[in-house]
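One chain is below:
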Amino acid sequence: WETALRVMVEKFGEFAVECAPFYLHYGMCLFRVAVESMSAGTEANAEPDADEEDPEEDPDDFQYAWENVEMARLIYEKIKDEAGAGGSSAEKSDLARRIEGDLTEHLKRVHMVLGEMMISQFNYEEAVPELEKALVLAGADAAKVADVSEILGLAHLQLGNFAKAKQVWNEAIDRIQAARSGHPAVEVLDALEKSFRTNIESATSLEKKKEEAA
């Protein structure tokens, strides 16, 4: 993705619509590398050999990941503003073609990734507004709502907002139940609902333990 992004930037320019998905995917790849590096560092218990030279530090993958996803967000937000402004139908049609997909879905994904990044850094307070934006953009699609609600509820739980976490998951269950009739993947919806109910039970148990300890 790094090479592809470089080619796209050279061809279309740094802030071009065409570059947005490449910024996003490259940022997501860097984020995965950063998470894997953190996991490897946590699992490594052996002390370094005193005779060995310290290896050169790797670039901050997390920071690069954030910068690329944030660039995608800026471009998509700019497109959203332009699409909502005036302009001929031909101009809007050309803009839609260049986006290559649903703008709302792209923005949802960007905000969700930003939220996940914040959670990986234990920054739950900043993760919540990003995930709330993603939830709004998920619209009425039960599967997409469930996808975002799972993480948003966990962020609230980490902040000790038990009632809010349960509210998010209960609302997701309501969406799932409303979408069940005639849905092509009822088994998936059933599994999601079961997962949310388990989360709610766990949140209730944790809330009770906290009250008892107070």
